[in-house]
Amino acid sequence: MNNLLILAIATVIFTLPLIVWRLLFEDSGFAGLPLLALGLLILSGTVSQRLSLNRARLAVALRPETWLRGVLTGMVGAVFTGLGLLFIALPVLAWTALSAGRPEQLALSALCIASGGTCVFSGRWVAAHFQPAYVRSYTVFTGTLAPVAVFLPIMIWINWTMVEYPVDYAQMGFLEALQYGLDRGPRLSGPDAAVMRFFQSADSLKLWLVHRFEDSALPGLLFSLHSALVVVIFARCFVAVTDFLRHMTRGTP
Questions:
Q1: DSSP-H helix ranges across the chain
Q2: Angle between helices 218-249 and 3-24 (to 10 degrees)
Q3: Residue 238, exposed/middle/buried by CB under 10 A (0-12, 13-18, 19+)?
Q4: CA atoms within 13 Å, Cβ hemisphere of 19
Q5: Backbone CA torsion sign across 181, 187, 193, 194
Q6: Mean pLDDT, 10 residues at a time, over the chain (253 residues)?
């Protein structure tokens, strides 16, 4: 399949569940189902890519005659890597889809397209430098790291200068900020709403700390950590989806 077509399909598959989640979260108990489908695709892509890397490493590490070749397949490590990413990524994707404003949405959309494009179009360059068994792994690495290095400063700047806050956190106490976050959280029941309430409270406390210690280096540190987490998660997950589609359809390197 053509790489441009793979990138277009990955964009639709990745963004549509987030849009449905954002639009229907307050009105439907089934809004999280598309997110679960996206999570399964991210898990599949991560496990598939990690398994190929683990097998390449084991092929070098194990002797041809050892019985360990039938035991050490790399699957367990690949599954744990995929689940670890999913455990962190899915709540971050869900919360960002709900809370991001237009500047953040545009920046993250550009980040995803840049990440997927770097992944699918860097294959030939990577193949010229690495052994075939490692090409897939390093295209994923390149597709994640290079766009993150470009977009992280942009996201920090957006969070620092363009995001507006609904209240004056500097006039609140710690407990007031915590309660304000809880009050702004969703009133729905269920695990997805509970996770979103946690993120809302954490975001409220972050903003309280930023305003309370605005004359120190703390605001810049908090905004940088928040932006780094979001940028890395979006880039890595979009690359997982893009790489998985290319692998399944045998897209051009």
A1: 3-24, 33-61, 75-99, 102-121, 123-127, 132-161, 174-184, 191-212, 218-249
A2: 130
A3: buried
A4: 7
A5: positive
A6: 89 94 77 89 95 91 84 91 94 90 92 95 91 92 95 88 64 68 60 72 75 70 82 96 90 55
Instruction: Please state, in angstroms and rounded to a whole number, the distance separating the CA atoms of residues 179 and 189.
Output: 18
- The residue whose two tokens read 């977009």 is 151
Cα–Cα distance for residue pair 242/143, rounded to 1 Å: 10
Whole-angstrom distance, CA of residue 243 vs CA of residue 138: 11
DSSP letters, 141-167, are HHHHHHHHHHHHHHHHHHHHHT---SS
Q: Measured between alpha carbons, how far is 119 from 112 in angstroms, rounded to an integer?
A: 10
Query: Using an 8 Å Cβ cutoff, are 205 and 172 in contact?
Result: no
* Closest of 170, 157, 181 to residue 210, by C-alpha: 170
Please give the pLDDT value at position 8.
Answer: 94
How far is residue 172 from each of residues 179, 182, 252, measured CA to CA in Å?
10, 14, 56
pLDDT of residue 33: 87
Q: 110 in helix, strand or coil?
A: helix
With beta carbons less than 8 A apart as the criterion, state whether 96 and 144 touch.
Answer: no
CB count within 10 Å of CB 222 equals 17
| CA angle, 44 then 14 then 8, to 5° | 105
The structure tokens 């108990």 sit at 29
